[in-house]
Amino acid sequence: MRVLSLTNTYPPDDVSGVGTLVAELSRALAAAGHEPVVWARRGSAADTFVVGLGGGKLAFPLRAGWRLLAGGERFDAVHVHESDGVVAALALRLLRLLRRPAGRTRLVATLQVSYCEERRTTRPVRDRGEVVSVPGAAERRFALVRAPLLALAGRWTARLADVVVAPSRQTARELERDYGARGVVVIPNGVRAVVRRTGTPAEPTILFAGRLRARKATVVLLRAFAAVVERMPDARLVLAGDGEDLPTVEREISRLGLGGRVERLGRVSREEVAARLQRATVFCLPSIYEGLPLALLEAMAAGVPVVATAVSGNPDAVVDGATGWLVPPEDSAALASALVHALADPAEARRRAAAASARFAERFEIGVVARRYLELLAAATAAAPG
Question: 10-22: buried (b, 16+ CB within 10 Å) or exposed (e) per residue?
């Protein structure tokens, strides 16, 4: 089976959840004896099946759509990701209407989020009612300009696709509500299994990894961490990531007097995050909105106890009380309580982390996820065009 995947970003030059997922899936397809082809903005020295189309982020969807219309290559399926696939979806539909051979190609669209919902959650973040962080200029521009356009593109992609895939049950419901998608298939994101952490770090360390923006609720984490330090003065917090909420984060660190207990890494590679997971006692994700974050899955794979908010796709991965801790969003007291429990009770933390690793191996390891996509692609290529 020859499968074309379209992604605006591809590692290591462009690091993103979508690009990482495409890379992992394509390698798994190749290992299974299929022929993956990836069109991205840049090629890859590591993966020979990646074709760089050049141009900027806005030009990439147009270049990909035009190349499909040219019809020089044949594929059994085209797998698009996010709203970047809308031009390719329109191109395939046109080829189908013209009864061209390439029009028989099936279109599978994986949509990580509803941009309507992401726009709704681009708002001030509160901690038990008090506003603690507000979206910056870039986030406000996203909500006013980009999000409506991306939502429109996502809606067209969902309606033109033969199959729509969401990474979580909640995202599937959002796509059905906001995009009018029907029969959304839920296939979770997946990552490669990593070496599990051995032993317990000498110093209680909480790790956060993600882009610093308001809806990641890093300020809520800092307030929770201040409460943790009152109980456990030797605790440390490591922030891996950069973003426009950094000034707010730095002001809060100073206001809470946490300068000596918080380490800010800035933007780091996935390899550095993996190394930090080996030295972390707990991984924490306090967001108010997510799709199904790869960072969460990587922590589960590494055997690191997870404390996260019960939003979006997080409950699909973390079962509260069994494979980690889930807390309400925008509640530093509840977050602090869960963090203290995870840090102060190593035996319970190890129990939940072991259960999380088993759940990861069963549902989220990239080989498992790739097999589900292979089954989906095989079924799609056997069906008549929609």
Answer: bbeebebbbbbbb
Same domain, 178 and 270: no
Q: Considering only CA atoms, which of 381, 372, 3 is closest in space to residue 166?
A: 372
Q: What is the pLDDT of residues 312-342, one digit of tens each?
A: 999 999 999 999 999 999 999 999 999 999 9
How distant is the alpha carbon of residue 362 from its chain centre? 19
The whole-angstrom separation of Cα 80 and Cα 89 is: 8
Residue 180 pLDDT > 60, yes or no?
A: yes
Range of the domain at 321: 205-363
**Do 159 and 229 belong to one domain?**
no
Tokens 């069906």 correspond to what residue?
383
DSSP 46-70: S-TTEEE--S-TTHHHHHHHHHHHH
Strand partners, 306: 283
**Reduced DSSP (H G I as helix, E B as strand, rest coil) percent helix, strand, coil of the chain, to 5:** 50, 20, 35
- What HEC string does 124-183 produce? CEEECCEEEECCCHHHHHHHHHHHHHHHHHHHHHHHHCCEEEECCHHHHHHHHHHHCCCC
Per the domain annotation, does 354 fall within a domain?
yes
Residue 78 has pLDDT above 60, yes or no: yes
Beta-bridge partners for 133: 125
Residues 219 and 239 both lie in one domain: yes
In a domain, 196, yes or no: no
Q: Write the CB contacts of 105 (distance below 8 Å, at least 6 apart in sequence).
A: 74, 75, 76, 77, 78, 92, 95
Whether residue 228 contacts residue 336, with contact meaning beta carbons closer than 8 Å, is answered with yes
Nearest to 79, CA basis, from 303, 374, 366 = 374
pLDDT band at 198 (very low <50, low <70, confident <90, very high): low
Phi, psi of 257 (to 5 degrees): 70, 40
In a domain, 249, yes or no: yes
Q: Check whether 62 has a pLDDT greater than 70.
A: yes
Q: Measured between alpha carbons, how far is 250 from 55 in angstroms, rounded to an integer?
A: 36
- State how many domains the chain has: 2
Residue 200 lies in a domain: no
